[in-house]
């Protein structure tokens, strides 16, 4: 029958064989067809259906048929040695089956390789451990989530009762959850800079949810914590703001740039509606706090006016009483203007209304008269 | 008196028939106009006369009938009226045809019956063809285009039937000849090609193409080849190649020769063309493809010219061109990893943790720095100029890495000086003298990276790295072997085969050295089917013990074997048969790897189904072969757009119903399918997977986000990765992956691509695909390889890195700036006329960047490009017909 033989190059050729031929005969056939240089029969390895064929077996025994194909490749000297070893064993053990002898060749190389593998493994293991330790040492030993509670417990045990849970938690926060650094803080005291950083995680959480409004967001975010701690102490009073460093910074900012108060109050309304309500209930006191001089600043009157107008927009009532009391203002008028005011008075209007209208209309007598007549009904109230 | 009674009887019956006819006509007359009625009556008269005993009358009637039919069918109006009116008489005429004696008149009637059978014959009877063969063999086109198309369809069916019966086909082929001539003359090239394919005689095409229609014909042939099974596809491409050569369209012929991977055809292109300038363009195309090609006296007679052309093939000027593009776009300024991370855009959480130094993060920064500044020659970490002490300042960053991290840090210098061999070797040289073996290993690898895609007569990589292959230290051996694999990929270098197979046969070599040696041999001899190397790798696999086969790096041995058969389809059968003799642990993995490599880039849907079948099996013994099967689906399907879309949907299903080891491979397969080509739906899928509860799936998805956005500077992917870096700031492994992905997105500051396809997505560079596949196979075991000691496998990506540019040069090969239109490519295969090939274009001046799916065409007639596809380096010639306006 015709048999197709394929090579690892991807090419194939046909040989004519008989089903009763032995594998060795087939190898000789291939050598004849392809030449001794390419495939010497002593080094050939024939493979069919996932099995390496033995020289002494026949094609029928290996179930080789015309529609299948053989693969031919060359063997190495080691494999030749294995083949020799395998040929010896069947001679000494006649009852050995084909499958048993088939498993014999792989047993030799693994034994040799096993030794090399063992040494390789033993060499690799320490290297891996070293590298793992190195990475562990290099990286921050940060604690998070479920490990945090366990770490706190361990540190408390380490202290033997000297440190309470709150102290340990505060130290961990100051050390950004690094337990080694936290223990160092517990022994030597928490540094001032680290102490200030304690609110940072909470602040970060808040800011991630809100839209920052430039420099205003920082002082505002300080209010919640202070408010919580102060509300219990002094109910209904704004005195706690007086000593608040953030409020002092806010005050100096507002006095130097009054326009900033409005967005500050808007932001405050978002962050802490309770505090804003408190300010509205005690608007007078709030204004007084805002206007207290930090270093004897000038322009306080201008600031007061702007602050008043801004507070008014938040329905802080009774605002108009303040400017009259705090800002007496003399108005100079010329004799001609004096006569004009007199004539408007003669028309039957109140002097105060006349003066107000006269000044509002830019000291124009006709416009003032027109204004007074049009709005005569308003002044009766 | 005997005849008298007969005549009287006939007259009586005729009178009765006439009375009935008159009655019918009165009824029908109400629906027809006068003209139609007259035509109908005329045709009925013709039918009667055809049956008249007088041959003279028959002839006149047939001629008139033919004239009427031809006049109507040759126009483009609605249903031809003569055919409509003759439909009731088809049976009558057929019956009469059987009674006629053999004569010319009988043939004329057969012609008419053939046309009538266009609509009247029963399904599958092929009566139109039957009567055509019995007819007068006149001009076939005069009956109209529709008739010709119908005949072609019937011929195909008849051909199949006759082939099964082994009947003669001479008369069919004669008719085919006429039909093809008609089609080719009337701009119906696709129909002609289809018919010839059906009758398996495409050779006939050569005699019918001319200057006006060969372009469309070849375009159709080339596109059809993608959907044909082998070896038919090679036959079709061969014919397209012959036609292009016949009309001296050598660049197109060269592209087909490269597609067929036929070096003999490449030689013929050179020997057929006499123009040295065009040969220069050929050399640029060969250089872009990445194959090794040696010019000889026969191809280029002049010695000086040959030297110049060989230099182009060797890619010596690639760095120069790349930097020209960079200067033109003004991105020469070095970027630091912080410029890529953009940590200042993040909210507070991640910023707090960023202050802590970390070897893992420094390693990631090393890779990001290498990827972003690839090929620019300068950066802010590795190449800072020395101010106080040379070694102290320049080595500052190197020693912020630890142990094997230094290997990647030293090798990153090779990436930064990519393609610039002279400067690269000078700067890497100082690390050869280090006391640290990891630094030396990195320097060796860096030398290989610098020489990637560049060939040099002095062979510096071999000279420098050759001696280190046999050193005792494992790190140094791996660095040298991997460097040689990258430097000589695709070269089929004989010396290296001897050296590296010696390593494979060395029983004392450790597994990792063997693995990298196999990969390097696979890269150097990619797609060569080299028998000796295959045998060496096979015996190495056979000699491994069961425990060794469980090591992570063992997977590279079957991959090295598979790369030898990349794209070679059936040639892998013998090797696949041998793999069945392997240990059970590695057998299936090797089989899947061989299958996917052999059919990579073929679009073979049968193999995709085969691989999907393996993915649907349930595993119970911790087998690992389904990973390469999933990657194999992507490797096979990436060949063309339709298969790519279908594969994306198949992978979505695997994602929903697949087991965990399949889900880990799916993101990598998606990354390969859309490499450097971010698609919105794939982006969304990978973004979803990057938050998967399984960290291995998440890591694979993150790396794949980097791959699909590689070199695109895609703002959306960059934003996703920034969010991921904030999300994973506590997980060092995932943060490492995010950093790598960020580096890939800004690869070469957006000037490079990792897409192995080029030349309008027609040609597949085997070395580029081999580099991608190697890196992806390493990612199948992310924790042990990429996140373990062997992170430098990421440098295999350098094989796929190419500038995504169009740089036009003049006849002296100097850069020349011309206006070009760059727009979205439009598929014009099989369309009539000269349709636009791009849409939504903008006008730029060269050098210009080309995104995925973009196509460029000249916006001026002042120059003539020597290449039909404007990509990479294109030589422009002055147009002699041009007049200044």
From TrEMBL, chain A:
<dbReference type="InterPro" id="IPR036353">
    <property type="entry name" value="XPC-bd_sf"/>
</dbReference>
<feature type="compositionally biased region" description="Polar residues">
    <location>
        <begin position="112"/>
        <end position="128"/>
    </location>
</feature>
<feature type="region of interest" description="Disordered">
    <location>
        <begin position="82"/>
        <end position="128"/>
    </location>
</feature>
<keyword id="KW-0963">Cytoplasm</keyword>
<dbReference type="InterPro" id="IPR015360">
    <property type="entry name" value="XPC-bd"/>
</dbReference>
<dbReference type="GO" id="GO:0043161">
    <property type="term" value="P:proteasome-mediated ubiquitin-dependent protein catabolic process"/>
</dbReference>
<feature type="domain" description="Ubiquitin-like">
    <location>
        <begin position="1"/>
        <end position="79"/>
    </location>
</feature>
<dbReference type="GO" id="GO:0070628">
    <property type="term" value="F:proteasome binding"/>
</dbReference>
<comment type="function">
    <text>Multiubiquitin chain receptor involved in modulation of proteasomal degradation. Involved in nucleotide excision repair.</text>
</comment>
<protein>
    <recommendedName>
        <fullName>Ubiquitin receptor RAD23</fullName>
    </recommendedName>
</protein>
<keyword id="KW-0677">Repeat</keyword>
<dbReference type="InterPro" id="IPR000626">
    <property type="entry name" value="Ubiquitin-like_dom"/>
</dbReference>
<dbReference type="GO" id="GO:0043130">
    <property type="term" value="F:ubiquitin binding"/>
</dbReference>
<comment type="similarity">
    <text>Belongs to the RAD23 family.</text>
</comment>
<dbReference type="InterPro" id="IPR029071">
    <property type="entry name" value="Ubiquitin-like_domsf"/>
</dbReference>
<dbReference type="Pfam" id="PF09280">
    <property type="entry name" value="XPC-binding"/>
</dbReference>
<feature type="compositionally biased region" description="Low complexity">
    <location>
        <begin position="94"/>
        <end position="105"/>
    </location>
</feature>
<dbReference type="GO" id="GO:0006289">
    <property type="term" value="P:nucleotide-excision repair"/>
</dbReference>
<dbReference type="GO" id="GO:0031593">
    <property type="term" value="F:polyubiquitin modification-dependent protein binding"/>
</dbReference>
<dbReference type="Pfam" id="PF00627">
    <property type="entry name" value="UBA"/>
</dbReference>
<dbReference type="InterPro" id="IPR015940">
    <property type="entry name" value="UBA"/>
</dbReference>
<dbReference type="GO" id="GO:0003684">
    <property type="term" value="F:damaged DNA binding"/>
</dbReference>
UniProtKB/TrEMBL annotation, chain B:
<dbReference type="InterPro" id="IPR040892">
    <property type="entry name" value="RPN1_N"/>
</dbReference>
<comment type="function">
    <text>Acts as a regulatory subunit of the 26 proteasome which is involved in the ATP-dependent degradation of ubiquitinated proteins.</text>
</comment>
<keyword id="KW-0677">Repeat</keyword>
<feature type="compositionally biased region" description="Basic and acidic residues">
    <location>
        <begin position="17"/>
        <end position="29"/>
    </location>
</feature>
<dbReference type="InterPro" id="IPR011989">
    <property type="entry name" value="ARM-like"/>
</dbReference>
<dbReference type="InterPro" id="IPR016024">
    <property type="entry name" value="ARM-type_fold"/>
</dbReference>
<dbReference type="GO" id="GO:0030234">
    <property type="term" value="F:enzyme regulator activity"/>
</dbReference>
<feature type="region of interest" description="Disordered">
    <location>
        <begin position="1"/>
        <end position="32"/>
    </location>
</feature>
<dbReference type="InterPro" id="IPR041433">
    <property type="entry name" value="RPN1_C"/>
</dbReference>
<dbReference type="InterPro" id="IPR016643">
    <property type="entry name" value="26S_Psome_Rpn1"/>
</dbReference>
<comment type="similarity">
    <text>Belongs to the proteasome subunit S2 family.</text>
</comment>
<dbReference type="GO" id="GO:0042176">
    <property type="term" value="P:regulation of protein catabolic process"/>
</dbReference>
<comment type="subunit">
    <text>Component of the 19S regulatory particle (RP/PA700) base subcomplex of the 26S proteasome. The 26S proteasome is composed of a core protease (CP), known as the 20S proteasome, capped at one or both ends by the 19S regulatory particle (RP/PA700). The RP/PA700 complex is composed of at least 17 different subunits in two subcomplexes, the base and the lid, which form the portions proximal and distal to the 20S proteolytic core, respectively.</text>
</comment>
<dbReference type="GO" id="GO:0005634">
    <property type="term" value="C:nucleus"/>
</dbReference>
<dbReference type="Pfam" id="PF17781">
    <property type="entry name" value="RPN1_RPN2_N"/>
</dbReference>
<keyword id="KW-0647">Proteasome</keyword>
<keyword id="KW-0832">Ubl conjugation</keyword>
<dbReference type="GO" id="GO:0034515">
    <property type="term" value="C:proteasome storage granule"/>
</dbReference>
<feature type="domain" description="26S proteasome non-ATPase regulatory subunit RPN1 C-terminal">
    <location>
        <begin position="829"/>
        <end position="882"/>
    </location>
</feature>
<dbReference type="Pfam" id="PF01851">
    <property type="entry name" value="PC_rep"/>
</dbReference>
<feature type="domain" description="RPN1 N-terminal">
    <location>
        <begin position="43"/>
        <end position="345"/>
    </location>
</feature>
<dbReference type="Pfam" id="PF18051">
    <property type="entry name" value="RPN1_C"/>
</dbReference>
